[in-house]
Amino acid sequence: MKIRQKITLISSLIFGFIFLLSSIVIYIAFYESSKNIFFQELSRTAKISGMFYLERDELSQKGFEPIQNSFYNLSSDQEVSIFNENGNIAFNTKELKQDWSESIEKIKEEGELNFRDNDTYYHGLFYKDNQGDFVVLVKATNPLIQSQKKRLISILAISFCVAMIILIFLTYRLSKLAYKPVRNIIKQVNHLNLHKSPLQLSYKSSKDELEELFQAFNNLLNEIESSYEQQKNFVDFSSHELKTPLASIINQLEISLQRDRSKDEYRETSAVVLQDAQQLKSILESLLTLSNLNKNIQLEEHIRIDELIWEIIEKLAPTYSEEKFNVKLEISPDDFDLLQCKGNETLLYMALFNIIENAAKFSKYEVVMIKLCKVNYRLQLQVKDQGIGISDKDLKHINQPFYRGGNTASFQGNGLGMSIALKIFQLHQIQYSITSQPQKFTKIQLEFPQ
Predict the structure, then answer these.
(1) Residue 281's domain spans which residues?
(2) Fewer beta carbons within 10 Å, N or C terminal of the chain?
(3) Which residues have CB under 8 Å from 215's CB, separation 6+?
(4) Structural domain contains residue 239
C-alpha cells in the first residue's frame, strides 16, 4: 500500500471513529435531555392531579378553579392513578390491571420516583394531606421522543456517510498534493546517472522536513559522486603507475634477450629491473596499506609524539643529515602529558614519516622546521619546508591517491604517501590543515585530540 493510500485510510478511520463517538454522545445527550423534560412534565401532572383530588375540600371555588382548569387541560395520553395509604385506588383516569404495591412502597420511601418500562414512562409522587397519605402515579407514552430518536439516528447516519465520502476525497487529494515533491524526487532518482554531473536533485524550497530530507539526500549524492570520481581516478592512476614499471621491466628484459651481453651489461640491466620491481613493490604495499585503512584498526597504544619524530629524523639522517631538521619543543615539563597520544604506533609513524620526508625532499637544500607547541590545551605539530610549494589547484586534490602536483615531475614518488598519511590522521581524529605558496613554502599543521 502506498503512503498516500495509508494516509487516506488512517485519516478516514480516525475521523470515522471520532465522528461515531461524537454521534453516540449526541444521541445519548439528546435522549437523556428529552427523557428528563418528559419526566418533569409528568411530575407537574402528578402535582396538579394530587391537588385536584385532595385539595378540593380545602380551597374556595375561586381558588380551586385554576387547579381544575389545569387538570382538564392535561394531555389525554397521560393516565393518572391515586392510591390511599392502604394501597387501594382512590382515583384513576383509567383502570389499572397490574399490582403496584411494590412500586407504591418505593415511592413512599423516595418521595418522588421516575422509572420506565420499555417505551412507557412513570412518575410517582408521595402526597401528604389532612385526609391521609396518598401516592399519585402518572403513566404516559411519548411518541414524539421515539420519532425524534429515529430522526436523529437517520440524520447522524446520513451525516456520517456524507462526511466520510467528503473526507476520503479531500484526504486523498491533499495527500496526493503533499506527496507530489516526493514523487518528483523519486522520478529524478530513477533517472540519476553516475556518468553525468552534477549528481543533484532539484526541488522547491518548502522550509519543512521534506526539504531537510532532500538536502540530506543531496549531501549523500555529493559524497557518492566524490567517491565515484576518486575511485575512477584511483583506477586510472593506479593502472598508469603500475603499467610504467612493468613496461620498463618488460622492455629491459626484451632488450637483454635480443643478443648475448657481457656480465656488466647484464648486471646493469638487472639493477634497472630491480629498481623497477622495487618501485612496483612499493606501489603495491602502499595500495595494500590504503585498503587496510578502511578496516577496523585498534587504536589503543600510548605513543610519545616527540620520540616518534626523533626516530623518523634518525631514519632520514643518512639521506638528508640531521642538520636538515630544526626541531623546536615549545612545551613546558608540566604539559608533557600532551605529548602522549593514543592510537596505532605503526600507522602514525608511517604518516609522520611521509610528511617529514616530503618536506625534506621538496625543500632541497633548505632546512625543515618542526615545532611542537601547546594550543588550546592540545598538542600542535607544525612541519614547514622552504621548497617548491603546492598550487591552489593541486592543493584541492592532495588527498586523492596517485595525484601528483604539476611541479613534482622531477621528484621520485607515486602520489600515494600523502593520501595514506591524511587518511591515518582522520582515523586518529587528528585535525590537519595545509597551507602553501608555490616556490616559497608548504606548512602542514596537526592538532592532536586531548
Answers:
(1) 209-292
(2) N
(3) none
(4) yes
